[in-house]
Amino acid sequence: SGINAEYGISDDEDDTHPNIDTPSLFRWRHQARLDRMGEFEKKKSETKEGLERNQRELTELKNKLKAADEESDKKRLEADIEKLQKQFSEFKSKEAELEKQEKLAPWNCDTICREGFSKTTVNKMPEKKKVMSEDERLEQSQKFMDKYKTDIEKFGFYNNWDDSKEYLLAHPHLACEDTANYLTYWCVNLQMEEKNGLMKQVAHQTIVMQYILELSKTMEVPPIACVPSFFTKIKTCDAKYMEGFNSELEAFIGRIERRAKEKTDKLIAEIEAEEREKRLGPGGLDPQEVYEELPPELQNCFDSKDIGMLQEVLTAMKPDEAQVWLKKCIDSGLWVPGPSDEAKMPHLPNNELSKEPNKKTGQRH
Length: 365
What we know:
Shape: elongated
Order of helices and strands: HHHHHHHHHHHHHEE
Number of helices: 13
């Protein structure tokens, strides 16, 4: 299944899904932002409605106060007016606080559309193409990446806003999810090769592309139509707005580092398992592991390939103990059975010492 089956990067901290799905890099955070923004808008609406209601009630009570004749009615109305005026002050303070929060809110793919981008004239998103099967989509993505690999990697090397913008405008076909997918795949490989600095550079360009894609979906326009506006905004925004971008970048780098470590650990484990499989003796034991278990005096025999010494050491042991060690040596291939030297072997059960040391694995490497 190509790249997608090999590199799983997601916002899910458990990272249990085996396939790469670049849009999911932002999905959880995007939904969390939408929830927070919805709650914020609800507070703004409630505050505005409260102020308007308060003003209506104040006007009504003031009119009643003017028309009141009884002193007791006047005092009651004045007390109610004072209470409403206090509420009005509270509403105004809350309104000012919400305005301050809105002004200081970090810039992200959801707020950016309300701050400058909505005024930009762009073409509407073309009608969606026919829905492809998963295999068709993967095949198309792989073809795109194979065809434009060099172009995508060149974009990944840019570290200047203007250069990135001009390059995308000159190569509009690169403004797509397949480019973000390839950059993500490349980041994992770079980290596995311990090229951390270059990985962070490419990660930056991956987030640039992801922002453009998210803007495209939010505004319902082709990704390339968002390129000029995105780079204009990112170059002129203040430090607070950049916090949102840098937060996404840092989180992405963290996921890349974790995923690369997982893949490296898995690869090392597979190589070690293959090497161990090749080493296994006729009885299924690993000669290296058996050698490390042997008493030092037996290790010395195999290190020197001294049959006489081996005979002496085994003869000095209890027969049952000698038999256990000898069987392990045979099953692991440390000791290879041979037709000669039977008369020279100590008298042990089954006369299993009538064998020759394995010249290939008889010493520790």
